[in-house]
Amino acid sequence: MLGERGTHSGVMAVRTRFRPDRGLTVRMVWTVFLLGLLYVLFVAALVALLKSVFWVVVIAGGLLFAQYWFSDKIALAGMGARTVTPQQAPELHGLLDRLCATADMPKPRVAISDSDLPNAFATGRNQENAVVCVTTGLLRRLDTQELEGVLAHELSHVAHRDVAVMTIASFLGVLAGLVTRFAFYSGLFGGRGRNNQQGFPVLLAVLLVSAVVYAVSFLLIRALSRYRELAADRAGALLTGRPSALASALTRVSGDMARIPTRDLRAASAFNALFFAPAIPSRASLAGLLMTHPPLERRVEQLARISREIGEAGR
């Protein structure tokens, strides 16, 4: 069953036939709210500890704007990807044309990264500037139905606008990191001979506050990241009506990832939050709290449950 119009606090106000995910919307709203509250408390603490944090906030704001506005260009450049026309990749464009028609949404730009790493991602600040990128490694390994499932998964990220929310949510972590460096170097090089004994406790306090803020924002963003992948799996499976094809793609991609050289996996891990499947797989343990994706087993189990619910075997 496909969805209708989502109008939740401006977070998801895009008209598509992707089924609205209220759980994802609530989590995005709460994550942004909690991070905003944490930001206010963080700035208040800095004002109390430091005489001025104006330039740090300005620089962090500039980085956020650049990351948000140019997110598609940054991601494509980082992956060495290029946009392709329907003449250059007719099958890929054909699949996206059919999926976008089914979902009743604008077609994003299409890009291909010349990498053996089997993966895909969607990025862009809105539907008009969205781009879906797949690697040549993914195209070689998946059949048509599996690739369709992956593309539907990525289109749901665009429809739900969770890519933009993740970009905005990362602002606080960037700010905390900048403040830590600013406080450390100003205390290290600017405090000598100027009542340095009083300045040292302030430096420690700033470092502690920044570390706590960074840790809390990191965990909130990772929790949202894991849920949004489950939401994209659900939405993609319901759009195509073939959860088993998406589960097969997940299993194939995760299995083939083990054959990729470790050096290449580590180099690509910076894009884990965007990827369809993580370059370094997550596991169901305490360390899973730090992962960008839920464990493969949980994703496959969810898809199997959806398959039973819609009666896929009898379609």
Automatic annotation (TrEMBL):
Zn(2+) binds at residues 153, 157, 229. Signal peptide: none annotated. It is an enzyme of class 3 (hydrolase). It comes from the Bacteria. It is found in: Cell membrane. InterPro entries: HtpX_protease (IPR050083), Pept_M48_protease_HtpX (IPR022919), Peptidase_M48 (IPR001915). GO terms for cellular component: plasma membrane. It is a multi-pass membrane protein. Its cofactor is Zn(2+). The active site is at 154. GO terms for molecular function: metalloendopeptidase activity; zinc ion binding. Keywords: Cell membrane, Hydrolase, Membrane, Metal-binding, Metalloprotease, Protease, Stress response, Transmembrane, Transmembrane helix, Zinc. Residues 86-305 form the Peptidase M48 domain. Its main location: membrane. Pfam families: Peptidase_M48. Belongs to the peptidase M48B family. This is Protease HtpX homolog.
